[in-house]
Write a structure and sequence with these properties.
The structure holds 2 protein chains of 2 kinds.
Chain A lengths: L4 E12 L2 E12 L3 E5 L6 H8 L7 E6 L2 E2 L5 H8 L2 E4 L11 H12 L4 H14 L15 H13 L5 E5 L7 H18 L2 E5 L3 H7 L2 E6 L2 E6 L1 H5 L4 H7 L10 H9 L4
Parallel strand pairs in A: 3-8, 3-9, 6-7, 7-8
Antiparallel strand pairs in A: 1-2, 1-4, 4-5, 9-10
Helix pairs in contact in A: 3-4, 3-5, 4-5
Chain B lengths: L1 E6 L3 E10 L4 H13 L3 E12 L1 H16 L4 E4 L3 H9 L8 E2 L2 H6 L2
Parallel strand pairs in B: 2-3, 3-4, 4-5
Antiparallel strand pairs in B: 1-2
Classes of the chains: A alpha/beta, B alpha/beta.
Amino acid sequence: MENTSAISIRNLDVDYGSRRILSNINFDIRQGEIMVIMGGSGSGKSTLLRTMLGLKKPSAGHINMLGTDICHASQKELYKLREKMGVAFQGGALFTSMSVTENIQLPLREHTKLDENTIQIMTRIKLDMVNLLPYENLMPSELSGGMKKRAALARAIIMDPKLLFFDEPSAGLDPITSAELDNLIVMLKESMRMTIVVVTHELESVFAIADRIAILGDGELIQIGSPEEIKSSTDERVINLLNRTPRENIVDGDVHLQRLTRDNQ
Amino acid sequence: MKSKLSAESNYDVLELSGEIDLHYSPELREMILGSLKDGKSLLINMAEVSYIDSSGIASLVEGFQTAKTAKLSYGLLKISSPALQVLTLTRLDRVFTLYDTAEQFQSHL
């Protein structure tokens, strides 16, 4: 594994309106590693992913991705960077008016001038990798949730990206499909030299695929380290996350009363 | 990617080295199909290939299919470890004929 950074995040703050979602986030993702970003609901992990993808502007800080500062890059620079990125969204985000094959081929048709035969073979290679080859002519509405997720992955890797982002790969999948997908993610890293960022809270997947794990809680980076370091963490929030301990909701009586009655005063 | 095409008595040898990606795979495709179009069997030496992406693999696959249709021999020689990993991932290590020596290929002509 190389030690140079594919992604550097420095002093990152992200707000939604007056509410701070991410606060002073600092970490690097090395080239050729699988970094899993995990945390409970509301931890800020999805916002971090959206910010890394350039879909949400940070309030402060920088994200350098393959040498481009995405917070200050021109549209042209971002377009060029996106040719090296693949994203598999949680729900698939497939175009409903296009077949599975047409969805998967879309990035090749948008970004390259490859021969039609090359495009057809590349598409079938990727469909085979995600076990969807028999379903190439189906429409997204005819696919199960797991199949949509796999089609989204095939589209995300069709250009053999240097950076692959995967939002909740295992959510909603049966255990066998989930394990197959984990295996494919590891193979993609090893064979295709991809740097892979996975956002998930599925613990089994996390420890099956991660080279390193970044744990977010309440908008802050709690800990980053190898799976072994995370497993032996002494941080209570990390232990609670790994042990699935419910959060204790400490209620201040006055604050709670005010919250419930504020519009009645 | 660097490439060198040389002619043996009854087949061509294409030596490839470096990285084969989206930018170079059209060139690779032209070379493979051009050689087969001349009716010559083809041995592709992949010992020095440090990376091949799926567009490069697609060019190899199209060449193989073209060779089969034309009843020509087509093989991959001394495939490098990074290239073999990609072939294994795409399950094409079971499709292509892989050779350790040029003599093995010659014996199949």
